[in-house]
Amino acid sequence: MGKPLNIGVVGCGNIITQYLATFPRLASVRLVAVADLDFARAEAVAAGQPGVRALSVDDLLADPAVDLVLNLTIPAAHADIALRAIAAGKAVYGEKPLAATTEEARKVLEAAAAAGAVIGCAPDTVLGTGIQTARKAIDDGLIGTPISATATMMTPGHERWHPNPDFYYQPGGGPLLDMGPYYVSALVTLLGPVVSVIGAASHTRSDRTIGKGPRAGESIPVSTDTHVTGVLVHESGALSTLVMSFDAVATQSANLEIHGDAGSLIVPDPNRFDGEVKLRTLGGEGWEVLPVSAGYVDAARGFGLHDIAVTPAGTEPRPGGQLAFHVLEVMESVLESAALGQSVKVASRCDRPVAVPLTDLGG
Fold first, then answer.
1. Rounded CA gap, 188 and 240, in Å?
2. pLDDT at res. 2
3. Which of the four, 9, 269, 279, 341, has the lowest number of CB atoms within 10 Å?
């Protein structure tokens, strides 16, 4: 690898702060430039990062010093920025989802293939010790043959804490497309790709009231389903039940459970990088906490960029475009199934990402 991968960020919203906290820990990447439609925001970020330049979006995409564009724009702009970056000869890593729709995402992958560009996409939480320790337990046969999984995310809605939650209740939002990438990426990492789905969806309210911020008390319309459930049929034969809700109050269910014919796993929240993995074996007494045995130690948002930087040329990175496309199609298919009232086949496939051995990058 010789030298760090030079990163240029497009989009200086709230999420950039998490990446900025991670970059100093990763010798494999170096932030060199930032851009935003609001140039003042880019200037504010650059001012706190020695050696980092604030540029216009056009100038950043054209800058020969930028090797990879980190796309932190809103989902509706993901495909446009990715396509422009690819055309400029850059690699791209984006926040989830890969694009607003699979149609747009397909164009991104086709353009990248034609240009020989590397595409990566969040979430990279699956690279942490939580999901990867569970992955190793499955690969080591600790639960026998995987049979099923449950993935549960129950919240009363983002309007309780988010000052501008409108997007979450419009088409393209909702609990599945917002939080589903974490859960579906984890399920594919643990159990492999999905071949078909059955979905159902509903919403209980036609409007929501913002709870915090300058718009507190304002009512916003709800025009998308806010409770989604689905059954994912994995290529391996395992069945995953997915429940994503902005309508519920709370749950005591584990975020992820994986069940096999010889044991069961409780897997940490896939929106986190770490957490305890618990195993209960057939005939055993109670749950045992498994020692951390795989994944990037103390990982944080941005470790996916490191994974791209160290992945050999011509090899799909773990948080790669093929996985992100498959996850997006699975989610779209669940919503399509809910609308049609019938099973929907998932056309795309991706390889189950290569496991991450226990890796401590220090810092």
1. 10
2. 63
3. 341
